[in-house]
């Protein structure tokens, strides 16, 4: 079966008594057992019956199994947010005295998690240029617990060579962890590129329509990882809720069609924005002269996602543009059905110091767009009137 079919067809763990076509939402905290033997087996992991919904819930399990069926992973863990999934992975791999080799070009909260929150627990962050695998290798030592990369960094859209990074990590006997939020796992195989642990903010493409917050950890079989991950999931208590799993299962079913439509519109908008004299530059991987275009094609295929950024002449021009929008929403989030625009410098990265923002290469004159499912002409007309004032 192709991914588009797998996203829809998967048997439930148990036949629904009414033959319901959609997985029921099990809104329950706990479960009753036939007798004490079955109960003890459940609590000690000797059968797969749920005991408590912080640990397992049939609706969430169904969602995890669908992701597993598409990715071919050994294990999939669903979390209450993308950040919970990232924290879960790093809390499983790292400990005091260990270090994480990564980059300054990271999603804002991930950068803060690694450099600040985990730093308080004695985990060191080593920030290097992940597009240079030799430099990356030079930062790894016996205390490095993983190499952490975003497949397309947000918002700079930098792309690292994943096979080269995987070689560097594997030579050192450590996993390559990749945040793949920017290109859905229905489009490319992270495992084939050497990724050992894939993390997705399912809030984005999968939820569709921005209905809910969620995160996924997709484990391709790192030794000892699943046991520690399960422990962290239970003890930190950030498991996904059944309502979210239900909404995101529906999102997963139509992800592929939405994604392809959004990518086609993003390509068109990127090309048309370039024709406006007020636009200083447009950053989109689908533009052939983008420095990461060819690497992106070789790793992810011929779709480039629905996020793009463009630069205007000044920070003030960005505020004027945003305040003039009529159709496009001034909002964060990515890959909603609606087109969204944001000024990352004053919002997502707004609490960082000027120096920190400079270190992260966050440009004060840059706008981030997430292209939705509206008609391309309507989106462009609104952007154009807001840019031209
Ligand atoms: C949104 C996002 C996250 C965080 O996910 P949440 O679901 O908001 O917690 C992590 N990484 C990337 C690349 C993101 O875009």
């Amino acid at each position: 079966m192709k991914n588009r079919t797998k996203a829809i067809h998967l048997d439930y763990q148990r036949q629904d008594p009414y033959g319901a076509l959609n997985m029921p939402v099990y809104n329950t905290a706990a479960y009753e057992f036939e007798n004490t033997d079955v109960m003890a087996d459940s609590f000690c992991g000797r059968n797969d019956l749920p005991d408590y919904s912080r640990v397992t819930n049939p609706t969430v399990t169904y969602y995890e199994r669908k992701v597993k069926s598409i990715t071919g992973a050994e294990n999939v863990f669903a979390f209450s947010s993308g950040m919970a999934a990232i924290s879960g992975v790093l809390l499983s791999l790292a400990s005091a005295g260990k270090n994480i080799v990564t980059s300054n070009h990271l999603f804002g909260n991930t950068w803060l998690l690694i450099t600040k929150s985990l730093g308080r627990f004695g985990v060191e962050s080593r920030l290097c240029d992940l597009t240079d695998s030799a430099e990356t290798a030079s930062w790894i030592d016996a205390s490095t617990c993983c190499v952490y990369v975003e497949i397309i960094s947000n918002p700079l859209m930098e792309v690292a060579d994943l096979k080269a990074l995987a070689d560097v990590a594997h030579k050192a006997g450590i996993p390559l962890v990749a945040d793949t939020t920017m290109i859905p796992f229905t489009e490319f195989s992270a495992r084939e590129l050497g990724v050992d642990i894939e993390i997705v903010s399912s809030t984005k493409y999968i939820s569709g329509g921005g209905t809910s917050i969620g995160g996924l950890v997709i484990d391709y079989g790192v030794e000892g990882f699943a046991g520690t991950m399960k422990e962290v999931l239970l003890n930190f208590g950030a498991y996904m809720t059944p309502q979210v799993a239900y909404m995101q299962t529906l999102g997963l079913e139509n992800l592929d069609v939405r994604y392809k439509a959004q990518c086609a519109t993003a390509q068109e908008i990127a090309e048309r924005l370039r024709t406006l004299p007020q636009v200083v530059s447009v950053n989109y991987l689908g533009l052939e002269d983008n420095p990461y275009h060819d690497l992106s094609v070789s790793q992810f295929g011929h779709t480039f996602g629905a996020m793009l950024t463009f630069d205007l002449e000044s920070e003030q021009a960005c505020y004027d543009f945003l305040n003039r929008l009529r159709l496009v929403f001034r909002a964060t989030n990515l890959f909603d059905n609606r087109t969204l625009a944001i000024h990352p410098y004053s919002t997502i990265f707004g609490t960082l110091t000027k120096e920190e923002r400079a270190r992260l290469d966050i440009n004060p004159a840059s706008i981030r767009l997430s292209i939705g499912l509206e008609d391309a002409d309507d989106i462009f007309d609104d952007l154009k009137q807001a840019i031209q004032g």
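The CA atoms of residues 130 and 136 lie 6 Å apart. The longest helix spans residues 255-273.
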